[in-house]
Amino acid sequence: MNNFYVELVELYERNGFEVQSSLSPAHFPGYNLADIPFTYILQNGKRMCKGGGLSIVELMFLQCVTSIVKPKNIFVIGNAFGWTTLALGLMSKDSKVLAIDMCPRPEEELGVKITNDLGKQITAEITAIKAKSPEDVPRVIRDNFEGGIDFVLIDGGHNSIQQSADFETCKRSAKKQCVYVFHDVINFNMVDSFVEIAKSNSSLVSSLLFRTPSGMAISYPKEFYEDLNATVNAFTEKDGTVKMLHSNGKKETKLI
Ligand SMILES: C[S@@+](CC[C@H](N)C(=O)[O-])C[C@H]1O[C@@H](n2cnc3c(N)ncnc32)[C@H](O)[C@@H]1O
Fold first, then answer.
1. Is residue 124 located within the same domain as residue 13?
2. pTM to 2 decimals?
3. pLDDT tens digits, residue range 43-98?
4. Which of 53, 69, 178, 249 has the most CB atoms at less than 10 Å from its CB?
């Protein structure tokens, strides 16, 4: 049996797309850390969509978590060209995955269509729709899931106000055992909003994931602590190491 990631690349390629993913800016001068480490779907060398998808290591994190919590009702804010929506479906073959995108451009509208087309070729039930968070979220969840959601990827608007609003609206439609994963938290300066979410939700265990290229984060119910702690630990860095690297990095910067 193939790995979900290999199946994902094959799925796009079989349908006439190319995948560009997880490259190092050190190997491609002129590109930066917010761009080339992530995933882009191409056709004839042209990017299909502006927003980058999760990197391979970030998908691996999702696979570690979903293999433990086995979510059935998965919700994604920010579909772009369907990369992580379809990845989640391939990881959780008997799940239902619903992704929304506000589709500011025709490219994301095409992304919704292609996600639905490719979604028909895999076992999980995949639906992508044009909708905006937070205002449309209660309705789309009510219309598509019975009993609420149990896994959320928040990867829509990349600012703190939007991230907090996305979390709050999802929480209102979520089951008690819902796991929340946030993309780009460190890269897009949304740590303050995440810390506030962590502080005001004492029933959740929250952690930044320093070993992911975008600086992802997770908040999960305390009842999953024994099951998820080792996974979260494997994708983050010890507090002491984080402090030491920040401090040493500042000294290095002064020397230059
Ligand atoms: C970084 S891309 C998502 C990538 C995708 N999660 C993946 O890994 O393949 C962010 C997407 O969020 C969408 N978006 C931004 N703000 C949104 C909002 N308020 N509601 C819904 N979608 C939004 C954008 O149109 C864009 O396509």
1. no
2. 0.96
3. 999 999 999 999 999 999 999 999 999 999 999 999 999 999 999 999 999 999 99
4. 53
Same domain (yes/no): 180, 112? yes
C-alpha 161/C-alpha 111 separation (Å) is: 25
Over residues 232-247, the pLDDT tens digits come to: 999 999 999 999 999 9
Same domain, 31 and 83: no
Burial of residue 152 (CB within 10 Å: 0-12, 13-18, 19+) is: buried
Q: Is 77 in the pocket of ligand 1 (CB under 6 A)?
A: yes
Does 166 share its domain with 190? yes
Pick the residue whose CA is nearest to atom 14 on ligand 1.
156
Whether residue 254 lies inside any domain: the answer is: no
Tell me, in angstroms, the distance from the centre of ligand 1 to residue 54's CA.
Answer: 12
Exposed, middle or buried by CB within 10 Å (0-12, 13-18, 19+), for 16?
Answer: exposed
Nearest to 167, CA basis, from 196, 197, 131: 197
Q: Which of 22, 62, 79 maximizes ligand 1 atoms within 8 Å of its Cβ, making it the mutation to test the pocket?
A: 79
pLDDT tens per residue, range 162-195? 999 999 999 999 999 999 999 999 999 999 999 9
pLDDT of residue 12 exceeding 60 = yes
Mutate to test the pocket of ligand 1, among 58, 110, 155 (most ligand atoms within 8 A of CB): 155
Which residues does residue 208 pair with via DSSP β-bridges, in sequence order?
Answer: 217
Ligand 1: centre distance to CA 127 (Å):
15
Q: Is 169 in the pocket of ligand 1 (CB under 6 A)?
A: no
